[in-house]
Amino acid sequence: xxxxxxxxxxxxxxxxxxxxxxxxxxxxxxxxxxxxxxxxxxxxxxxxxxxxxxxxxxxxxxxxxxxxxxxxxxxxxxxxxxxxxxxxxxxxxxxxxxxxxxxxxxxxxxxxxxxxxxxxxxxxxxxxxxxxxxxxxxxxxxxxxxxxxxxxxxxxxxxxxxxxxxxxxxxxxxxxxxxxxxxxxxxxxxxxxxxxxxxxxxxxxxxx
Length: 208
Hints:
There is one protein chain. The chain is mostly helical and 208 residues long. Helices cover 76% and strands 2% of the residues. The protein contains 7 helices and 2 strands, in the order H-H-E-E-H-H-H-H-H. It has helices spanning 2-22, 29-48, 69-99, 107-133, 139-154, 161-178, 183-207; strands at 62-63, 66-67. It has a two-stranded antiparallel sheet. Strand 1 and strand 2 form a beta hairpin.
């Protein structure tokens, strides 16, 4: 009986070692929570103080050949939120990996980033095209869709729940593309509320 228990324990240890070598498990739940808070704050500022809430695909953001000044403020705000979210994720993931005696930058994390980069770069280029054409109403839903595709790709190299998160983001993006007048709301749900729920799940499921 004891030998059987030892055998089962050895198998479990081998599986754990294989998972650590093939999966990036240093994602921090708090990084997801903080990213959600940043996104909700950005959506609130954009709506309340920058008067940004596109209610049609073609939005009046072109003024004498130049982008409407209010939109530039929204773009700067989005860049700040992106920097904060990425910076927080790197810092907290590094701290988590360090506690486990692992390296943050390894072959698995490289594969994860490469698989995320392809849809993110494609989506970023499409957003620039939409901006140039004045199709501002599609920006919020398209960011959700391409971000969701990136997460779904990343799910092969980290927690399985990341795939589910990706599918939710894609779904919200598609709904937001249909109901353009609620695009900012769906953006806030996807990047804000869903991220916070995901972060809480990761924290209590894998970090407690």
